Sequence to fold (940 residues):
Amino acid sequence: MKLSLKVNGKKIEKEVDDNTLLVSFIRENLNLTGTHVGCDTSQCGSCVVHVNGKSVKSCAMFAVDANGSEVTTIEGLEKDGKLHPVQESFKKHHGLQCGYCTPGMVMSSIDLLKSHKNPTEEEIRKGLEGNICRCTGYQNIVASVKGAIGKV
Amino acid sequence: MIGSKVERKEDKKFLTGKGRYTADITLHNQSYAVFIRSPHARAKIKGIDTAKAKKASGVIDVLTGKDLADDKIGGLIAGWKIVSKDGTDMKCPAHPALATDTVNYVGDHVALVIAESLQEAKDAADLVNVDYKVLKAVANTGDAMNAEAIHEGIDKNLCFDWELGDKAKVDEAFSSADKVVEMDIVNNRLVPNAMEPRASIGDYNSSSDELTLYTTSQNPHLSRLVMSAFNALHPEHKFRIVAPDVGGGFGSKIYPYSEDVVIAWAAKRLQRPVKWVCERTESFLSDCHGRDHITKAAVAVKSDGTVTGLKVDTIANLGGYASLFATVTPTYLYGPLVLGLYNIPAAYCNVKAVYTNTAPVDAYRGAGRPEATYLIERIMDKAAKEMGMDRAEFRKKNFIKQFPHQQCLVHNIDSGDYDAHFDKALNLADYAGFEKRKAESAAKGKLRGIGFSTYIEACGIAPSAAVMSLGAGVGLWESAEIRFNPTGNISVFTGTHSHGQGHDTTFAQIVSDKLGVPVENIEIVHGDTDKGPFGMGTYGSRSLAVGGSAISKACDKIVEKGKAVAANMLEAKPEDIEFKDGEFIVPNTNKKKTMGEIAFACYLPGTYGEIKSPLPEGMEPGLKETAFYDPVNFSFPAGSHICEVEIDPTTGETKVDTYTCVDDFGNLINPMIVEGQIHGGLAQGIGQALYENAYYDETGQLVTASYMDYCMPRADNFPEFRIDYTCTPATSNPLGVKGCGEAGAIASPPAVMNAVVDAIGTEVTMPATAEKVWRALKDKKSAQKKAA
Ligand code: FES
Ligand code: FES
Fold:
């Protein structure tokens, strides 16, 4: 079907198959390869993007279901060459190593900070439970989220 | 610069989605490949019918092991020869990249379907008909030696029966011991699970006869060497391997896999780019796994608590075939380390490595050293308890106190101060206050336990002379090249590879310090065999100690040449020139040249009228230096970790309440990056202790082949780790660094398990899941009832 949506503020109209996953649409049709695939059971969170401002595992959603919505991927966070405060905080607190989980982590963290204005450490850790990172042991990701409190 | 928390240069691209991983690469005219894998753990292949699949829509070709053999592509190799105690060489079966006669684990490679799109390749894969005669699988490490041989001519499924140490001396220690403490130890099997699944893209250029393989590799140079020399895939000088951004490795991306060989070969054969990206379940089945040891250990103890002997008997599972580093992992990376950081005068270690119908087992973060540390730290705990001694005091009593120290097995440890980090850890963890906390937990109906773990690793892998005498196929030195550009910025080429370790930053800090050039003007280049010099890659916590040292040496050569040029320009003697903070100065004068001026001058040789050449007569122009560094010894990081757990006896659930570590990594270049390495290692080690387990059933099916069944640690499984350091610089490399990448994964499993066992007062194996702990408590209770 013909899909019409906004991705990172840009209007997109494209023909897609009904069974195309949102993540494949983003990576293959739009060539936005910052959104990653880390599993085949919707459990790692590498593929998290925002659909209408809410974080969504893009491997668990068909592209056609995003019709008419606004999608933001990791590529869409930087504004006028300035990193988003959460991106900035990940850099400052060494919240990433290999970078593979990072786009999903950043997108989930932004959502977390939107829904919890002043989260406790426990709330942060619980809030990131859907995202797996194999490199950082999570400590500096938690620090990165803490560091961005009040800035989102 | 050295020693400061410099933010990472590489972060911005990853944070903005501009990292470029292998799966992100799309080549013009690329085709898509899917592997047909064995669904059986052990079977004979009676026939492969590809006719239907070949005719399916979009299919370009279906390739089998026969095609591979016709093209004379060699099989995969084990890179380290181990000799059994009877003097015979280890026995390795043929390991073709695509199976021809038999398959030996679920996920073993049988055929390759290549099509215009991924979907077409997947659809056609269903049409390939493989006729299997299913055979009885050998899936269990402990049973392998008594089972039917899975490889022809390999009796008892035994690859080698290796020994280390002086058995007679150990027997003597045991016969004169006041107490002998024995223990059965299982080191559970793990799946490395780098978040980026493996991927490969082959690309062949017929006009230049150049073959390029983009792949998820920790060491592209070594892969190219192996694939050229042993797989006879393509001549090395016309073969390029690019490992772009790599999303974690932890060992699992060190070695070339069947997929690398097959994809590169297919691209060459079809003269078309071929892309393969692994799916997660596929990676559970076909990535090399880690650990999987069964051990019987014993220590001999004197009545005052002195340990006088150690005996270790291990069965190590190699899986279906011997992978590249599979044979060194349970031998030289393991045996010498079973002594831990204790002064034990006699030890004997026997390792039997067996084949089973499971995925190959190879190096995973720590490789051999976590297994060694787990056994010595668990048995030291048990011994202390049986001797009625405080577990901390018992350890301290047996620490090595003087350095250098020649251990009774292999290693000569250059430096350390084990009391220092242990005492610091005891303080930081408030050991003195433990009983009070335990009472508080008890008041809440919870069980609290404390566990200690101390470790040494042998890192900086590896001094070539030492390892080649032990059977290594190559020496493990490292190279570096520093190119000063005429405008004063620098390109540094290293043979190591960064896939999360932050070399772009750490290495730049070293160069910045040595040459006085700001970090922003230094580019670290790695991961492409066409760009950098030959190098051995990244594993075994070697990159800084060996690769960083090569860089440091190359910097020294740059300074030396700079001094000669400066002397010529400033009309002084080279030996009078001092180099400091990026300036060449003649002391006690105001004569000086900056590093930038010297670099520029090096590219402007020759005399121009009045202006004489800046270069001394006969000196080559340019400013570029190469250095190779072969360490004189391993480096020996060490540390003390203390874990406190709280267990809910009604559910068996274990919570890691506090975790404290004090490590001695020698000098630190970037403490921020070091901390990150510790955190990551701890999460993997605690994961092994409490959550992770790769489980094969008796038919050889991997039951835990997805994130639904294999429990990956998540953010809410951990407390905030407390970290501190002590420092005794390494004497084996010019930077005084020891390596930090594996410590967390090595030290934490025994720290956690000693705490769990302390809390529940009975043994339990890893992973100590809620169910197992609950059962252990129940069994203990019924045993107590029976006794009463
Ligand atoms: S790719 Fe793992 S959750 Fe989407
Ligand atoms: S940074 Fe590597 S998986 Fe998170």
Observations:
- The two ends of chain B are 66 Å apart (CA to CA).
